[in-house]
Amino acid sequence: MAASADGPFDDGLQLERTHLAWNRTAFTLGVNALLLVRFSRHVHPASLALVLAGAMALTALAAWWYGHAAYTGRSATLSAGRSVARPRVLRAFSHVMTALLFAAIVIALFAAR
Amino acid sequence: MSVGRGSRRSTRERPPLEATGSEPDPRFTLANERTFLAWSRTALALVATGLAVVEFLDSQSLGVRLAIGIPLMALGAIVSLRTYARWEAIERALRLGEPLPYAQFPRWLGLAIAVITIAACVMLLAQI
After folding, report:
1. Is residue B62 within 8 Å of residue B96, measured between CB atoms?
2. What ipTM describes this predicted complex?
3. CB-based contact (8 Å) between A25 and chain B?
4. pTM (two decimals)
């Protein structure tokens, strides 16, 4: 499926679908950030929830940016016959998101006090 | 999320992914990445639902809302905890030409969601 001088760009639309998947993930992160902002009124101090919401929004931005950058970057990678796997990126994203979600639980427990 | 019987070595014992096997068809790698993102969105959706229950279920006391919302959020965090391990297990299987590891987690996730939903219904009905 590599793009080449003779072949089509993004044969099979794999890169485009992956790009869209990153966009959807960024969007879902953004929705969670907005919900946390709304949720902050139950938490004292509210700044705890707002800081977490900000971190989540930044992660959403990073996910959107990576999806966009990888879309064009990976087409060149494929043309050169190199690997498209990005284990470090996925591992970092997974760790950050897991930390944010566990922090959201802690924030919710603050609301129970 | 089970990573398969053939992948029970600890992370420190396994060679780096880049040094394992051979490069698979990039379509499979990208499909694996999309599956990783789908699991991430599942985790985020569970947490969002938990937050939404606490925030918008105004007819119920805060205690009831938290009793429904926090287990959903915890489930989302647990799902997120295993997303990368699942991605790496599949990527290794692809690189080694092995069968993909069977995932038991979807079964347990469905069961957990059903239990939380039923418990939530019971709690809400008890308020009537």
Report:
1. no
2. 0.86
3. yes
4. 0.87
